[in-house]
Amino acid sequence: MSREQIRWKELRRSFGIELNKIYLKIDKQFVYNYDIILISYY
């Protein structure tokens, strides 16, 4: 693998990790809201 390819792979990996963090935050927020909705229904 060339240095360029390796650098690109690293970039994509760190980008993927950042995306995962964002999705986890959204997911937690959604689950939290969902709990509130369920509680308010019962």
From TrEMBL:
<protein>
    <submittedName>
        <fullName>Uncharacterized protein</fullName>
    </submittedName>
</protein>
